[in-house]
Design brief:
Alpha-Beta Plaits, two-stranded antiparallel ribbon, alpha+beta
């Protein structure tokens, strides 16, 4: 007699484990920072709306369709956008494909805004041509940010740091936490851990209702000054040449890998495949 345990396949075991831990497989996380080009004319909600237009499925999350969960085969994004006096930081949790799409689109818009007359890429030329034929529109908000740098990326996280995606204004200047000062790796790790800790604060804030987000005032209230980001830290990181740009990240992570096998390295030989006994 065959037992239920003997009938369980490896796939059944993996799916059961994921269900038990409520883990969403293949969820990635990326953190980037940028400088606000013109603070005198840029309003924080314009930056948030720009990201809503270029991050896949983010507008659906903002409409309350999902609170950072997966539905069917679609994994909705979560994370946080913090707008400081002269800089921003964006932490995004989404599928690997959506993050690649976001980064490559963001890079295209950056090239259009700041480098379109300096040896434009083939992708930019195609987008400009499509725009001239009303088949592509560079969204409102393109060019609000510059000096974009990737601080952190991991392609498989055990759980979300944020339940949904929210945007907050941090209008005050906070002195840099002394623990975050130092060489690049220390600054990046410190800033990353600070964002994760902020996610825990937002999660556990008793005043946070499921379909709302804390205001800038409440975010400052629930967090100590040392837990809030410093504008100076992120301005420094956005001009750090040791950190990858959008294009440099995309060249490594978002490129299509074409794997081909020559006949002499294939067994059985392709010419004999049809003659093999079945």
């Amino acid at each position: 007699m065959t037992t239920a345990h003997e009938k369980m396949t490896l796939l059944d075991a993996i799916e059961g484990k994921l269900k038990d831990t409520k883990r969403i497989p293949f969820l990635s996380r990326i953190v980037l920072t940028a400088k606000i080009v013109d603070r005198q004319t840029t309003v924080d909600h314009e930056i948030a709306e720009y990201f809503e237009r270029i991050v896949p499925n983010l507008s659906a999350v903002r409409r309350g369709m999902s609170i950072g969960v997966s539905r069917g085969r679609k994994v909705y994004p979560s994370g946080v956008l913090l707008c400081m006096p002269n800089s921003i930081v964006q932490l995004l949790e989404a599928s690997y494909e959506d993050i690649c799409s976001f980064v490559t689109t963001f890079a295209l818009h950056q090239e259009y805004a700041f480098k379109q007359h300096d040896a434009p890429s083939e992708r930019l030329l195609e987008a400009i041509d499509a725009a001239s034929q009303n088949r592509y529109i560079f969204p409102r908000g393109t060019g609000l940010l510059s000096n974009v740098r990737i601080l952190f990326f991991t392609d498989d996280i055990p759980e979300r740091a944020f339940l949904t995606w929210t945007a907050h204004s941090i209008p005050k200047h906070f002195a840099p936490n002394p623990e975050l000062l130092g060489f690049t790796e220390k600054q990046v790790l410190g800033a990353y851990n600070q964002l994760l800790a902020l996610g825990q604060l937002i999660k556990t804030d008793s005043l946070l209702a499921p379909d709302t987000q804390p205001t800038a005032e409440s975010l400052i209230t629930i967090a100590e000054e040392s837990a809030l980001p410093s504008n100076e830290i992120y301005l420094n990181l956005s001009s750090n040449p040791d950190l990858p740009t959008l294009d440099e990240w995309a060249d490594i992570y978002a490129c299509v890998i074409d794997v081909s096998m020559d006949d002499e390295f294939t067994w059985p030989a392709l010419s004999t495949l049809n003659t093999l006994p079945i």
